[in-house]
Amino acid sequence: MVRRTKEDAMETRAKLLDAAEALFSEKGVTQTSMMQVAEKAGVTRGAIYHHFENKMDLIESLMGRVKLPFDEMREQVAEGSEFDPLIEVKERSKEFIRRVQDDDQVRSLASILLHKCEYIDEVNPIKLRHISGRNECICDVEKLFETAVKRNELAPTVHSRVAVIGLFSLVDGLIYNWLLAPDYFPLVEYGNQAIDSYINGLKR
User: Fold this and answer.
1) Residue 120, Cα to own-chain centre: how many angstroms?
2) What pLDDT band is residue 22 in, cutting at 50, 70 and 90?
3) For residues 75 and 140, what is the distance between their CA atoms, to the nearest angstrom?
4) Best label site of 70, 73, 81, 172, fewest CB within 10 Å?
């Protein structure tokens, strides 16, 4: 009985997250209320507040259920795993854009964060979380670029921080523009070529 109750609670939580993801993608974060999420999920007001304190909590949980390629790479870096830093950065970047194109949850989350999340006071904690995660990832990728420079895999004139900011801007820009009009260009095909061109340019 206890196991069934726990399974029911997990199922309700998943329904609420799916509903929030759909509504945030369609209407935006500030234009969606907790009650609208509950109604779409087919649960009561009490049920949604049992699982989530507010919309910020919902967003945090949406971000938490998606593990991105750069997160996996950061774990490898933390563990001190041995791998080719340049190949790793390139392949993780390509995998990220592939996941945005092919994985519904990743695409929805990217759309919410880039297009449907108005960074005003009401949702400022989301902005701070987004910035914090981005900055941590930048620091980890910067170390990989530094290693590549030391191994003579990149030109000695490459400034690691500038290189990683450029790469992130390229990947984010590709995703941002593709989400605006997915039929305008093939994200993975063009994205892979753009990433290869960028990384190869750093070797000269």
Assistant:
1) 20
2) very high
3) 10
4) 81
Q: What are phi and psi of 159, to 5 degrees?
A: -90, 115
Tokens linked to 97: 């854009």
Residue reference for tokens 């259920």: 65
CA distance 48 to 29: 16
Q: Tell me the C-alpha distance between 93 and 195, whole Å.
A: 8
Among residues 72, 75, 69, the alpha carbon closest in space to that of 97 is found at 69
User: Interior CA angle at 195 toward 130 and 82, to 5°?
Assistant: 75
What does the DSSP 8-state code read for residue 82? -
For the chain, the maximum distance between any two Cα atoms, rounded to a whole number of angstroms, is 65
Token pair 């309700």 is found at: 12
Instruction: Give the pLDDT confidence of 70-79 residue by residue, as tens digits.
Output: 676 666 666 6
Burial class (CB within 10 angstroms; exposed 0-12, middle 13-18, buried 19+) of 66: middle
